[in-house]
Amino acid sequence: KYYYHLIKPELSQREIDKLIEKIKGISFVHANRKIEVVKVELVEKMLNGKKVKALKIYAKNHKDIIPLKDKIKTLPGVLEHEHKEEDINFITRYLIEKKVIPCCWHTAEIDQNEIIKKIEWKNNVDIIGYIKNIKVGENDKEYRPKILAFDIEASAFEIGKGEIVMISLYGDEIKKVLTWKKFSTKSNFVEFVKDEKTLIQRFVDLVRNEKPDYLVGYFSDGFDMPYLKQNSKKHKVKLALSLDNTEVVMQRGKISSAKTSGICHIDLFRFVENFVAPSLHSETLTLNEVASELIGEEKIKIESFEIDGLDHQELEKFAEYNLQDSILVYKLFHKLWHQILEITKLVIEPLAVTTRSSYSQLVESYIIHNLKEFDEIIEHRPFSDEIEKRKLMPKYAGAFVLEPKPGIYENIAMFDFRSLYPSIIISYNISPATITKEKTKLFTPEFELDGKKVKFYFKEKKGFIPILLKRLIEARKRVKEEKKKNPSPLLEARDLALKTLANAHYGYFGFFGARYYSRECAASITALGRWHIQNMIEKAKKAGFEVIYADTDSLALLLKHKTKKEALDWLKEANKQLPEAMELELEDFYVR
Predict the structure, then answer these.
(1) Cβ neighbour number for residue 130 with a 10 Å cutoff
(2) Where is 2: in which H helix or E strand?
(3) pLDDT for 194-225, tens place per residue?
(4) Handedness of CA 202, 204, 208, 210 (dihedral sign)
(5) What does the pLDDT look like over 461-470, one tens digit per residue?
(6) Region 383-396: what's the mean pLDDT?
(7) What is the gyration radius of the CA atoms in the chain, in angstroms?
(8) What interhelical angle do 519-542 and 420-427 show, nearest 10?
(9) Mean pLDDT of 508-534
(10) Coil, helix or strand for 41?
Protein backbone atom coordinates (compact mmCIF):
# COMPACT_ATOMS: atom_id res chain seq x y z
CA LYS A 1 0.00 0.00 0.00
CA TYR A 2 2.51 2.57 -1.19
CA TYR A 3 3.61 4.56 -4.22
CA TYR A 4 6.69 6.57 -5.23
CA HIS A 5 6.84 10.31 -5.82
CA LEU A 6 10.03 11.65 -7.38
CA ILE A 7 11.55 14.78 -5.83
CA LYS A 8 13.69 17.50 -7.32
CA PRO A 9 17.32 16.27 -7.41
CA GLU A 10 18.70 19.64 -6.20
CA LEU A 11 16.85 19.52 -2.83
CA SER A 12 19.09 19.65 0.25
CA GLN A 13 18.68 17.11 3.06
CA ARG A 14 17.10 19.81 5.21
CA GLU A 15 14.53 20.60 2.51
CA ILE A 16 13.80 16.88 2.07
CA ASP A 17 13.26 16.44 5.85
CA LYS A 18 10.82 19.39 5.91
CA LEU A 19 8.96 17.96 2.91
CA ILE A 20 8.69 14.54 4.57
CA GLU A 21 7.29 16.11 7.79
CA LYS A 22 4.72 18.04 5.77
CA ILE A 23 3.61 14.86 3.97
CA LYS A 24 3.40 12.92 7.26
CA GLY A 25 1.00 15.57 8.56
CA ILE A 26 -1.48 15.18 5.69
CA SER A 27 -4.96 14.15 6.88
CA PHE A 28 -8.29 14.59 5.09
CA VAL A 29 -11.61 12.87 4.40
CA HIS A 30 -12.29 11.36 1.00
CA ALA A 31 -15.21 9.06 0.02
CA ASN A 32 -16.26 8.90 3.71
CA ARG A 33 -12.80 7.62 4.69
CA LYS A 34 -10.17 9.41 6.75
CA ILE A 35 -7.00 9.40 4.69
CA GLU A 36 -3.61 9.67 6.38
CA VAL A 37 0.00 8.95 5.53
CA VAL A 38 1.32 5.99 7.52
CA LYS A 39 5.01 6.36 6.69
CA VAL A 40 7.39 8.20 4.32
CA GLU A 41 10.84 6.95 3.28
CA LEU A 42 13.51 8.68 1.21
CA VAL A 43 14.87 6.17 -1.32
CA GLU A 44 17.43 6.14 -4.09
CA LYS A 45 16.34 3.79 -6.84
CA MET A 46 16.53 3.26 -10.58
CA LEU A 47 13.93 4.47 -13.06
CA ASN A 48 14.44 3.18 -16.59
CA GLY A 49 18.15 2.65 -15.90
CA LYS A 50 18.76 6.07 -14.30
CA LYS A 51 19.32 6.84 -10.60
CA VAL A 52 16.56 8.91 -9.03
CA LYS A 53 15.58 10.21 -5.59
CA ALA A 54 12.01 9.47 -4.55
CA LEU A 55 9.73 9.41 -1.54
CA LYS A 56 8.11 6.07 -0.82
CA ILE A 57 4.73 7.02 0.63
CA TYR A 58 2.65 4.47 2.54
CA ALA A 59 -1.13 4.57 3.12
CA LYS A 60 -3.50 2.52 5.30
CA ASN A 61 -5.61 1.39 2.38
CA HIS A 62 -4.65 0.87 -1.29
CA LYS A 63 -7.75 2.93 -2.22
CA ASP A 64 -6.16 5.95 -0.49
CA ILE A 65 -3.15 6.08 -2.82
CA ILE A 66 -4.78 8.07 -5.67
CA PRO A 67 -6.30 10.86 -3.51
CA LEU A 68 -3.03 11.07 -1.55
CA LYS A 69 -1.02 11.42 -4.75
CA ASP A 70 -3.32 14.24 -5.91
CA LYS A 71 -2.67 16.15 -2.65
CA ILE A 72 1.10 15.57 -2.60
CA LYS A 73 1.83 16.41 -6.26
CA THR A 74 1.09 20.12 -5.59
CA LEU A 75 3.69 20.42 -2.81
CA PRO A 76 6.88 22.38 -3.59
CA GLY A 77 9.88 20.06 -3.92
CA VAL A 78 8.10 17.12 -5.56
CA LEU A 79 8.05 16.61 -9.32
CA GLU A 80 4.33 17.09 -10.02
CA HIS A 81 3.90 14.54 -12.81
CA GLU A 82 6.57 12.06 -11.67
CA HIS A 83 4.44 9.79 -9.47
CA LYS A 84 4.97 6.07 -10.00
CA GLU A 85 3.33 2.76 -9.11
CA GLU A 86 0.05 4.22 -7.84
CA ASP A 87 -1.49 2.45 -10.86
CA ILE A 88 -0.23 -0.98 -9.74
CA ASN A 89 -3.33 -2.82 -8.56
CA PHE A 90 -3.47 -4.31 -5.08
CA ILE A 91 -3.35 -7.96 -6.20
CA THR A 92 -0.27 -7.38 -8.39
CA ARG A 93 1.39 -5.53 -5.50
CA TYR A 94 0.62 -8.43 -3.14
CA LEU A 95 2.06 -10.99 -5.56
CA ILE A 96 5.25 -8.93 -5.97
CA GLU A 97 5.77 -8.23 -2.27
CA LYS A 98 4.91 -11.72 -1.00
CA LYS A 99 6.62 -13.51 -3.93
CA VAL A 100 3.49 -15.56 -4.60
CA ILE A 101 3.29 -17.42 -7.93
CA PRO A 102 -0.23 -18.21 -9.19
CA CYS A 103 -1.12 -21.86 -9.89
CA CYS A 104 1.71 -23.16 -7.67
CA TRP A 105 1.42 -24.89 -4.30
CA HIS A 106 2.44 -22.66 -1.39
CA THR A 107 3.09 -23.20 2.31
CA ALA A 108 1.41 -20.61 4.52
CA GLU A 109 1.64 -19.87 8.24
CA ILE A 110 -1.81 -18.78 9.43
CA ASP A 111 -2.85 -16.77 12.47
CA GLN A 112 -6.28 -18.21 13.33
CA ASN A 113 -6.75 -16.06 16.44
CA GLU A 114 -7.23 -12.72 14.64
CA ILE A 115 -10.85 -11.69 13.99
CA ILE A 116 -11.81 -11.91 10.31
CA LYS A 117 -14.43 -9.44 9.13
CA LYS A 118 -15.62 -11.39 6.07
CA ILE A 119 -17.45 -14.14 7.93
CA GLU A 120 -19.22 -15.17 4.68
CA TRP A 121 -16.11 -17.15 3.78
CA LYS A 122 -16.23 -19.34 6.90
CA ASN A 123 -18.52 -22.04 5.50
CA ASN A 124 -16.62 -22.27 2.22
CA VAL A 125 -12.99 -22.73 3.26
CA ASP A 126 -11.03 -25.16 5.43
CA ILE A 127 -9.02 -22.65 7.47
CA ILE A 128 -9.51 -18.93 7.98
CA GLY A 129 -6.98 -16.47 9.36
CA TYR A 130 -4.42 -13.84 8.46
CA ILE A 131 -1.29 -15.05 6.70
CA LYS A 132 1.85 -14.52 8.79
CA ASN A 133 4.18 -15.97 6.19
CA ILE A 134 3.80 -17.55 2.76
CA LYS A 135 6.31 -19.19 0.41
CA VAL A 136 6.32 -21.44 -2.64
CA GLY A 137 6.16 -25.04 -1.45
CA GLU A 138 6.83 -28.41 -3.04
CA ASN A 139 5.55 -28.38 -6.61
CA ASP A 140 6.04 -32.01 -7.56
CA LYS A 141 2.34 -32.53 -6.88
CA GLU A 142 0.27 -31.70 -9.97
CA TYR A 143 -2.19 -28.84 -9.62
CA ARG A 144 -5.45 -30.06 -11.14
CA PRO A 145 -8.24 -27.50 -10.68
CA LYS A 146 -11.92 -28.34 -10.34
CA ILE A 147 -13.74 -27.05 -13.42
CA LEU A 148 -17.40 -26.18 -13.87
CA ALA A 149 -18.36 -25.27 -17.44
CA PHE A 150 -21.61 -23.43 -18.12
CA ASP A 151 -23.66 -22.07 -21.01
CA ILE A 152 -26.95 -20.19 -21.29
CA GLU A 153 -29.68 -20.19 -23.97
CA ALA A 154 -31.99 -17.19 -24.28
CA SER A 155 -35.10 -16.26 -26.25
CA ALA A 156 -33.34 -13.23 -27.80
CA PHE A 157 -29.68 -12.57 -28.65
CA GLU A 158 -29.70 -8.95 -27.48
CA ILE A 159 -28.86 -8.71 -23.79
CA GLY A 160 -31.84 -7.63 -21.71
CA LYS A 161 -34.34 -8.12 -24.54
CA GLY A 162 -35.16 -11.77 -23.88
CA GLU A 163 -35.45 -14.39 -21.16
CA ILE A 164 -32.88 -16.99 -20.13
CA VAL A 165 -34.58 -20.26 -20.99
CA MET A 166 -31.87 -22.86 -20.26
CA ILE A 167 -28.59 -23.04 -18.37
CA SER A 168 -26.31 -26.06 -18.65
CA LEU A 169 -23.57 -27.04 -16.20
CA TYR A 170 -20.92 -29.69 -16.73
CA GLY A 171 -18.06 -30.84 -14.51
CA ASP A 172 -16.47 -33.91 -12.95
CA GLU A 173 -19.47 -34.47 -10.68
CA ILE A 174 -22.32 -32.67 -12.45
CA LYS A 175 -24.17 -32.91 -15.74
CA LYS A 176 -27.28 -30.78 -15.78
CA VAL A 177 -29.59 -28.57 -17.84
CA LEU A 178 -31.90 -26.22 -15.95
CA THR A 179 -35.01 -24.95 -17.72
CA TRP A 180 -38.46 -23.54 -17.01
CA LYS A 181 -39.74 -24.66 -20.44
CA LYS A 182 -41.82 -27.76 -19.82
CA PHE A 183 -41.50 -30.76 -22.17
CA SER A 184 -41.59 -34.53 -21.86
CA THR A 185 -38.11 -36.06 -21.71
CA LYS A 186 -36.31 -39.31 -20.98
CA SER A 187 -33.06 -37.46 -20.23
CA ASN A 188 -32.00 -37.63 -16.58
CA PHE A 189 -29.87 -34.48 -16.84
CA VAL A 190 -32.80 -32.07 -17.29
CA GLU A 191 -34.11 -30.30 -14.18
CA PHE A 192 -37.31 -28.27 -14.47
CA VAL A 193 -37.87 -25.11 -12.44
CA LYS A 194 -40.81 -22.75 -11.99
CA ASP A 195 -39.68 -19.64 -13.92
CA GLU A 196 -36.67 -17.55 -15.02
CA LYS A 197 -36.17 -16.12 -11.53
CA THR A 198 -35.99 -19.63 -10.02
CA LEU A 199 -33.72 -20.71 -12.88
CA ILE A 200 -31.12 -18.04 -12.07
CA GLN A 201 -31.32 -18.72 -8.32
CA ARG A 202 -30.92 -22.47 -8.87
CA PHE A 203 -27.88 -21.83 -11.08
CA VAL A 204 -26.31 -19.71 -8.32
CA ASP A 205 -27.03 -22.41 -5.72
CA LEU A 206 -25.50 -25.17 -7.86
CA VAL A 207 -22.32 -23.17 -8.51
CA ARG A 208 -21.95 -22.45 -4.79
CA ASN A 209 -22.62 -26.09 -3.88
CA GLU A 210 -20.07 -27.35 -6.43
CA LYS A 211 -17.40 -24.86 -5.27
CA PRO A 212 -15.32 -25.12 -8.44
CA ASP A 213 -11.91 -23.48 -8.71
CA TYR A 214 -12.86 -22.13 -12.14
CA LEU A 215 -16.27 -21.31 -13.61
CA VAL A 216 -15.65 -21.50 -17.36
CA GLY A 217 -17.66 -20.24 -20.32
CA TYR A 218 -17.05 -19.42 -23.98
CA PHE A 219 -17.65 -15.77 -24.84
CA SER A 220 -19.21 -15.59 -21.38
CA ASP A 221 -17.74 -12.10 -20.78
CA GLY A 222 -19.57 -10.86 -23.85
CA PHE A 223 -22.86 -12.77 -23.56
CA ASP A 224 -23.63 -15.25 -20.76
CA MET A 225 -22.52 -13.20 -17.74
CA PRO A 226 -23.95 -9.82 -18.87
CA TYR A 227 -27.25 -11.61 -19.69
CA LEU A 228 -27.30 -13.27 -16.27
CA LYS A 229 -26.39 -10.00 -14.58
CA GLN A 230 -29.11 -8.03 -16.39
CA ASN A 231 -31.88 -10.57 -15.84
CA SER A 232 -30.94 -11.32 -12.22
CA LYS A 233 -31.18 -7.59 -11.55
CA LYS A 234 -34.65 -7.58 -13.14
CA HIS A 235 -35.81 -10.37 -10.80
CA LYS A 236 -33.88 -9.02 -7.77
CA VAL A 237 -31.85 -12.23 -7.54
CA LYS A 238 -28.36 -11.87 -6.09
CA LEU A 239 -25.90 -13.25 -8.69
CA ALA A 240 -23.56 -14.37 -5.88
CA LEU A 241 -21.20 -16.65 -7.81
CA SER A 242 -18.24 -15.76 -5.58
CA LEU A 243 -16.92 -17.81 -2.70
CA ASP A 244 -17.47 -14.89 -0.30
CA ASN A 245 -21.13 -14.53 -1.37
CA THR A 246 -20.50 -11.32 -3.33
CA GLU A 247 -22.09 -10.64 -6.71
CA VAL A 248 -20.48 -10.82 -10.13
CA VAL A 249 -18.92 -7.46 -11.03
CA MET A 250 -18.81 -6.40 -14.69
CA GLN A 251 -15.56 -4.53 -15.34
CA ARG A 252 -15.50 -2.13 -18.29
CA GLY A 253 -13.28 -2.60 -21.32
CA LYS A 254 -13.47 -3.23 -25.08
CA ILE A 255 -15.20 -6.41 -23.96
CA SER A 256 -16.49 -6.23 -20.40
CA SER A 257 -14.99 -8.74 -17.97
CA ALA A 258 -17.09 -10.62 -15.43
CA LYS A 259 -15.15 -10.67 -12.16
CA THR A 260 -15.77 -13.11 -9.32
CA SER A 261 -13.93 -13.75 -6.03
CA GLY A 262 -12.64 -17.09 -4.79
CA ILE A 263 -14.29 -18.93 -7.66
CA CYS A 264 -12.46 -17.62 -10.73
CA HIS A 265 -14.55 -16.93 -13.84
CA ILE A 266 -12.74 -17.65 -17.13
CA ASP A 267 -13.95 -16.74 -20.59
CA LEU A 268 -12.12 -19.31 -22.71
CA PHE A 269 -12.88 -17.34 -25.88
CA ARG A 270 -10.62 -14.51 -24.64
CA PHE A 271 -7.66 -16.87 -24.20
CA VAL A 272 -8.25 -18.50 -27.59
CA GLU A 273 -8.53 -15.08 -29.28
CA ASN A 274 -5.43 -13.60 -27.61
CA PHE A 275 -3.11 -16.58 -27.34
CA VAL A 276 -4.20 -19.58 -29.41
CA ALA A 277 -5.72 -18.02 -32.55
CA PRO A 278 -2.44 -17.48 -34.51
CA SER A 279 -1.79 -21.25 -34.51
CA LEU A 280 -5.32 -22.23 -35.58
CA HIS A 281 -6.53 -23.05 -39.10
CA SER A 282 -10.13 -22.14 -38.20
CA GLU A 283 -11.44 -19.14 -40.14
CA THR A 284 -13.59 -17.99 -37.21
CA LEU A 285 -13.24 -18.46 -33.45
CA THR A 286 -16.71 -19.87 -32.82
CA LEU A 287 -16.95 -22.60 -30.21
CA ASN A 288 -17.88 -25.07 -32.95
CA GLU A 289 -14.86 -24.38 -35.17
CA VAL A 290 -12.31 -24.16 -32.33
CA ALA A 291 -13.60 -27.33 -30.62
CA SER A 292 -13.69 -29.15 -33.95
CA GLU A 293 -10.03 -28.33 -34.62
CA LEU A 294 -8.63 -28.78 -31.14
CA ILE A 295 -10.65 -31.66 -29.65
CA GLY A 296 -12.33 -33.16 -32.73
CA GLU A 297 -15.88 -32.60 -31.44
CA GLU A 298 -18.67 -30.30 -32.59
CA LYS A 299 -21.87 -28.67 -31.41
CA ILE A 300 -25.16 -30.47 -31.94
CA LYS A 301 -26.92 -29.15 -35.05
CA ILE A 302 -30.41 -27.77 -34.49
CA GLU A 303 -32.91 -26.44 -37.00
CA SER A 304 -34.23 -23.39 -35.15
CA PHE A 305 -33.17 -21.02 -32.36
CA GLU A 306 -36.74 -19.66 -32.00
CA ILE A 307 -37.30 -21.39 -28.64
CA ASP A 308 -40.89 -20.19 -28.19
CA GLY A 309 -42.03 -22.07 -31.29
CA LEU A 310 -40.39 -25.45 -30.54
CA ASP A 311 -42.40 -28.60 -29.76
CA HIS A 312 -41.53 -31.17 -27.03
CA GLN A 313 -39.15 -33.19 -29.20
CA GLU A 314 -37.35 -30.10 -30.46
CA LEU A 315 -37.03 -28.70 -26.92
CA GLU A 316 -35.41 -31.95 -25.79
CA LYS A 317 -32.95 -31.64 -28.67
CA PHE A 318 -32.34 -28.05 -27.63
CA ALA A 319 -31.52 -29.20 -24.08
CA GLU A 320 -28.98 -31.67 -25.53
CA TYR A 321 -27.56 -28.82 -27.63
CA ASN A 322 -27.23 -26.63 -24.53
CA LEU A 323 -25.49 -29.40 -22.56
CA GLN A 324 -23.13 -30.20 -25.44
CA ASP A 325 -21.92 -26.58 -25.41
CA SER A 326 -20.87 -26.93 -21.77
CA ILE A 327 -19.24 -30.30 -22.47
CA LEU A 328 -17.22 -28.74 -25.33
CA VAL A 329 -16.13 -25.86 -23.07
CA TYR A 330 -15.09 -28.32 -20.35
CA LYS A 331 -13.05 -30.46 -22.76
CA LEU A 332 -11.56 -27.43 -24.49
CA PHE A 333 -10.41 -26.04 -21.15
CA HIS A 334 -8.60 -29.28 -20.32
CA LYS A 335 -7.04 -29.30 -23.79
CA LEU A 336 -5.69 -25.77 -23.22
CA TRP A 337 -5.03 -26.10 -19.50
CA HIS A 338 -1.27 -26.64 -19.72
CA GLN A 339 -0.88 -23.58 -21.95
CA ILE A 340 -2.96 -21.48 -19.53
CA LEU A 341 -0.99 -22.84 -16.56
CA GLU A 342 2.47 -22.22 -18.03
CA ILE A 343 1.85 -18.68 -19.25
CA THR A 344 0.23 -17.78 -15.90
CA LYS A 345 3.20 -19.07 -13.89
CA LEU A 346 5.57 -17.26 -16.24
CA VAL A 347 4.00 -13.78 -16.05
CA ILE A 348 2.95 -14.16 -12.38
CA GLU A 349 -0.50 -12.57 -12.73
CA PRO A 350 -3.79 -14.19 -11.63
CA LEU A 351 -5.27 -16.62 -14.11
CA ALA A 352 -8.32 -14.39 -14.56
CA VAL A 353 -5.92 -11.70 -15.86
CA THR A 354 -3.60 -13.82 -18.01
CA THR A 355 -6.46 -15.55 -19.86
CA ARG A 356 -7.72 -12.10 -20.92
CA SER A 357 -4.33 -10.54 -21.76
CA SER A 358 -2.85 -9.68 -25.15
CA TYR A 359 0.76 -10.66 -25.97
CA SER A 360 2.01 -7.17 -25.05
CA GLN A 361 0.15 -7.20 -21.74
CA LEU A 362 1.73 -10.57 -20.92
CA VAL A 363 5.20 -9.17 -21.69
CA GLU A 364 4.54 -6.17 -19.44
CA SER A 365 3.39 -8.41 -16.58
CA TYR A 366 6.55 -10.51 -16.95
CA ILE A 367 8.70 -7.36 -16.81
CA ILE A 368 7.06 -5.65 -13.82
CA HIS A 369 7.04 -8.82 -11.70
CA ASN A 370 10.81 -9.13 -12.14
CA LEU A 371 11.90 -5.50 -11.66
CA LYS A 372 12.48 -5.68 -7.91
CA GLU A 373 15.84 -7.42 -8.35
CA PHE A 374 17.04 -4.49 -10.51
CA ASP A 375 15.95 -1.95 -7.84
CA GLU A 376 13.75 -0.38 -10.53
CA ILE A 377 10.67 1.73 -9.90
CA ILE A 378 7.95 0.56 -12.28
CA GLU A 379 7.22 3.06 -15.05
CA HIS A 380 3.74 4.62 -15.15
CA ARG A 381 1.12 3.36 -17.60
CA PRO A 382 0.50 5.99 -20.32
CA PHE A 383 -2.59 8.18 -20.07
CA SER A 384 -5.14 8.29 -22.89
CA ASP A 385 -3.75 11.52 -24.43
CA GLU A 386 -0.26 9.96 -24.62
CA ILE A 387 -1.69 6.81 -26.23
CA GLU A 388 -3.52 8.90 -28.86
CA LYS A 389 -0.30 10.83 -29.55
CA ARG A 390 1.56 7.55 -30.10
CA LYS A 391 -1.12 6.31 -32.48
CA LEU A 392 -0.72 9.39 -34.68
CA MET A 393 3.02 8.85 -35.21
CA PRO A 394 4.02 7.68 -38.73
CA LYS A 395 4.80 4.01 -39.26
CA TYR A 396 8.42 2.89 -39.45
CA ALA A 397 9.94 0.40 -41.92
CA GLY A 398 9.39 -3.27 -41.12
CA ALA A 399 11.02 -6.45 -42.41
CA PHE A 400 13.02 -6.96 -45.62
CA VAL A 401 11.58 -9.17 -48.39
CA LEU A 402 13.56 -10.26 -51.44
CA GLU A 403 11.15 -10.65 -54.36
CA PRO A 404 11.45 -14.25 -55.59
CA LYS A 405 11.86 -15.19 -59.24
CA PRO A 406 9.00 -17.57 -60.16
CA GLY A 407 10.14 -21.02 -61.30
CA ILE A 408 10.81 -24.63 -60.34
CA TYR A 409 14.10 -25.10 -58.52
CA GLU A 410 16.17 -28.11 -57.51
CA ASN A 411 18.66 -28.66 -54.67
CA ILE A 412 17.66 -25.94 -52.25
CA ALA A 413 19.00 -25.19 -48.76
CA MET A 414 16.64 -23.26 -46.48
CA PHE A 415 18.08 -21.28 -43.55
CA ASP A 416 16.49 -19.08 -40.89
CA PHE A 417 17.59 -16.99 -37.92
CA ARG A 418 16.64 -18.55 -34.60
CA SER A 419 14.36 -16.07 -32.77
CA LEU A 420 15.62 -13.15 -34.88
CA TYR A 421 14.07 -10.16 -33.09
CA PRO A 422 14.58 -11.49 -29.52
CA SER A 423 18.21 -12.31 -30.35
CA ILE A 424 18.72 -8.79 -31.78
CA ILE A 425 17.29 -7.22 -28.58
CA ILE A 426 19.73 -9.30 -26.49
CA SER A 427 22.78 -8.91 -28.75
CA TYR A 428 22.44 -5.14 -29.16
CA ASN A 429 21.07 -4.48 -25.66
CA ILE A 430 17.98 -2.72 -26.98
CA SER A 431 15.55 -1.19 -24.49
CA PRO A 432 14.27 2.26 -23.44
CA ALA A 433 16.64 2.11 -20.44
CA THR A 434 19.75 1.65 -22.61
CA ILE A 435 19.12 4.04 -25.50
CA THR A 436 21.65 6.88 -25.63
CA LYS A 437 22.75 9.73 -27.92
CA GLU A 438 26.41 8.93 -27.26
CA LYS A 439 28.20 6.58 -29.62
CA THR A 440 28.91 3.12 -28.13
CA LYS A 441 30.81 0.02 -29.25
CA LEU A 442 27.54 -1.75 -30.12
CA PHE A 443 26.91 -1.65 -33.87
CA THR A 444 23.74 0.03 -35.14
CA PRO A 445 22.90 0.70 -38.81
CA GLU A 446 21.69 3.99 -40.22
CA PHE A 447 18.07 3.91 -41.36
CA GLU A 448 15.22 6.21 -42.30
CA LEU A 449 12.64 7.29 -39.75
CA ASP A 450 10.02 9.98 -40.42
CA GLY A 451 11.86 11.00 -43.60
CA LYS A 452 15.23 11.51 -41.88
CA LYS A 453 18.38 9.39 -41.72
CA VAL A 454 18.87 8.31 -38.10
CA LYS A 455 21.07 6.04 -35.99
CA PHE A 456 20.30 5.14 -32.38
CA TYR A 457 22.94 3.92 -29.94
CA PHE A 458 22.54 1.56 -27.00
CA LYS A 459 24.62 1.37 -23.84
CA GLU A 460 26.91 -1.60 -23.29
CA LYS A 461 25.79 -2.20 -19.70
CA LYS A 462 22.98 -4.74 -19.92
CA GLY A 463 19.46 -3.37 -19.50
CA PHE A 464 16.80 -5.20 -17.49
CA ILE A 465 14.61 -6.01 -20.53
CA PRO A 466 17.42 -7.72 -22.53
CA ILE A 467 18.45 -9.60 -19.34
CA LEU A 468 14.90 -10.82 -18.69
CA LEU A 469 14.45 -11.74 -22.35
CA LYS A 470 17.71 -13.74 -22.34
CA ARG A 471 16.37 -15.76 -19.39
CA LEU A 472 13.35 -16.75 -21.46
CA ILE A 473 15.57 -17.86 -24.37
CA GLU A 474 17.86 -19.86 -22.07
CA ALA A 475 14.89 -21.43 -20.26
CA ARG A 476 13.44 -22.47 -23.62
CA LYS A 477 16.74 -24.13 -24.60
CA ARG A 478 16.60 -26.21 -21.39
CA VAL A 479 12.95 -27.13 -22.00
CA LYS A 480 13.68 -28.18 -25.58
CA GLU A 481 16.51 -30.44 -24.37
CA GLU A 482 14.26 -31.94 -21.69
CA LYS A 483 11.48 -32.39 -24.26
CA LYS A 484 13.75 -34.52 -26.44
CA LYS A 485 14.44 -36.88 -23.51
CA ASN A 486 10.96 -36.89 -21.92
CA PRO A 487 8.28 -35.46 -24.24
CA SER A 488 5.05 -34.42 -22.54
CA PRO A 489 2.09 -32.04 -23.10
CA LEU A 490 3.27 -29.96 -20.11
CA LEU A 491 6.75 -29.42 -21.60
CA GLU A 492 5.19 -28.70 -24.99
CA ALA A 493 3.03 -26.01 -23.37
CA ARG A 494 6.00 -24.59 -21.43
CA ASP A 495 8.03 -24.40 -24.63
CA LEU A 496 5.17 -22.57 -26.39
CA ALA A 497 4.71 -20.14 -23.48
CA LEU A 498 8.43 -19.27 -23.42
CA LYS A 499 8.60 -18.94 -27.21
CA THR A 500 5.47 -16.75 -27.40
CA LEU A 501 6.56 -14.44 -24.60
CA ALA A 502 10.07 -14.05 -26.03
CA ASN A 503 8.83 -13.30 -29.55
CA ALA A 504 6.30 -10.76 -28.25
CA HIS A 505 8.99 -8.45 -26.81
CA TYR A 506 9.60 -6.69 -30.14
CA GLY A 507 5.87 -5.99 -30.56
CA TYR A 508 5.71 -4.73 -26.96
CA PHE A 509 8.05 -1.81 -27.73
CA GLY A 510 5.54 -0.64 -30.35
CA PHE A 511 2.42 -1.33 -28.23
CA PHE A 512 0.68 2.05 -27.72
CA GLY A 513 -0.38 1.20 -24.15
CA ALA A 514 3.05 -0.05 -23.00
CA ARG A 515 4.79 1.35 -19.93
CA TYR A 516 8.09 0.81 -21.75
CA TYR A 517 6.98 1.94 -25.19
CA SER A 518 9.81 2.97 -27.52
CA ARG A 519 9.34 3.64 -31.20
CA GLU A 520 13.11 4.16 -31.47
CA CYS A 521 13.77 0.68 -30.05
CA ALA A 522 11.19 -0.99 -32.30
CA ALA A 523 12.50 0.76 -35.43
CA SER A 524 16.11 -0.11 -34.50
CA ILE A 525 15.19 -3.80 -34.15
CA THR A 526 13.64 -3.99 -37.62
CA ALA A 527 16.55 -2.00 -39.09
CA LEU A 528 19.02 -4.49 -37.60
CA GLY A 529 16.86 -7.33 -38.89
CA ARG A 530 16.99 -5.90 -42.42
CA TRP A 531 20.74 -5.32 -42.16
CA HIS A 532 21.47 -8.89 -41.01
CA ILE A 533 19.35 -10.64 -43.64
CA GLN A 534 20.81 -8.46 -46.42
CA ASN A 535 24.32 -9.09 -45.06
CA MET A 536 23.67 -12.86 -45.18
CA ILE A 537 22.46 -12.58 -48.76
CA GLU A 538 25.73 -10.85 -49.76
CA LYS A 539 27.81 -13.46 -47.90
CA ALA A 540 25.94 -16.28 -49.64
CA LYS A 541 26.46 -14.70 -53.08
CA LYS A 542 30.20 -14.27 -52.43
CA ALA A 543 30.40 -17.96 -51.46
CA GLY A 544 28.91 -18.90 -54.85
CA PHE A 545 25.28 -19.59 -53.87
CA GLU A 546 22.29 -18.16 -55.68
CA VAL A 547 19.74 -16.62 -53.32
CA ILE A 548 16.26 -17.30 -54.70
CA TYR A 549 14.22 -16.00 -51.78
CA ALA A 550 14.56 -14.11 -48.48
CA ASP A 551 11.91 -12.89 -46.08
CA THR A 552 12.34 -11.24 -42.62
CA ASP A 553 14.47 -13.94 -40.97
CA SER A 554 14.96 -16.67 -43.61
CA LEU A 555 16.68 -17.26 -46.94
CA ALA A 556 16.62 -19.99 -49.57
CA LEU A 557 19.87 -20.83 -51.41
CA LEU A 558 20.22 -22.71 -54.66
CA LEU A 559 23.07 -25.22 -54.25
CA LYS A 560 23.63 -25.84 -58.00
CA HIS A 561 26.94 -27.73 -58.18
CA LYS A 562 27.71 -27.27 -54.45
CA THR A 563 27.33 -30.07 -51.90
CA LYS A 564 25.35 -30.15 -48.67
CA LYS A 565 28.65 -30.19 -46.76
CA GLU A 566 29.75 -26.96 -48.46
CA ALA A 567 26.45 -25.35 -47.48
CA LEU A 568 26.93 -26.45 -43.85
CA ASP A 569 30.54 -25.20 -43.87
CA TRP A 570 29.30 -21.83 -45.13
CA LEU A 571 26.70 -21.77 -42.34
CA LYS A 572 29.39 -22.46 -39.73
CA GLU A 573 31.56 -19.58 -40.99
CA ALA A 574 28.58 -17.20 -41.27
CA ASN A 575 27.61 -17.89 -37.64
CA LYS A 576 31.13 -17.09 -36.40
CA GLN A 577 30.62 -13.49 -37.53
CA LEU A 578 27.26 -13.07 -35.79
CA PRO A 579 26.85 -11.64 -32.26
CA GLU A 580 26.70 -14.29 -29.53
CA ALA A 581 22.91 -14.42 -29.14
CA MET A 582 22.25 -14.63 -32.88
CA GLU A 583 22.34 -17.83 -34.89
CA LEU A 584 21.43 -18.86 -38.44
CA GLU A 585 20.04 -22.39 -38.56
CA LEU A 586 19.52 -24.91 -41.33
CA GLU A 587 15.82 -25.57 -41.70
CA ASP A 588 16.33 -28.37 -44.25
CA PHE A 589 17.57 -29.39 -47.69
CA TYR A 590 14.95 -29.79 -50.41
CA VAL A 591 15.25 -31.87 -53.58
CA ARG A 592 12.81 -29.69 -55.51
Answers:
(1) 12
(2) strand 2-7
(3) 999 999 999 999 999 999 999 999 999 999 99
(4) positive
(5) 999 999 999 9
(6) 93
(7) 28
(8) 110
(9) 95
(10) strand
